Amino acid sequence: MKYSRLTKEQFEELHQEFINFLATQSITGDEWEDIKKNKPEAAEQELDVFSDLVWLGVLTKVKYLEHISPNQIHLFECNEKSMRLIALRIENEHVDFTTKEGFNWLRDNLLSDSVEFFNAKKDYSEDKYLDIFKMIQSGASITKGELFNYFSKLVKG
Question: Which InterPro entries does this UniProt record tie to the protein (predicted)?
């Protein structure tokens, strides 16, 4: 398995898609029940293959990621060959970006000397989607890019 197995809840949510997946392999509902009961390792493999297909479908659509921690914000734009990063950092332990108050503080103090901006570009390894997957596994969230685009204008300006 390349990515990770979907959770029980995710499988339940994708129940119809999984049925369709089995159907593409000419596996009926009765046959699936038989495989689960008599060939558990084959059933596990089917679950893993389906999980990887779902993940790949999600990862190919990712355009923006963000990772917000108490004193840092990392915003990523996932381009074809590389990833662009805009990072903000603050040395004030009384401000926590993960709270509404911390975000409000950032909005009000954005151009102060206490907020550091970083801009970088990083090429993907040989597997772009695995790179993105690892970032999600380490806490990044898939977004529509509103924060990235907002700060991108500021950094350029």
Answer: DUF6495
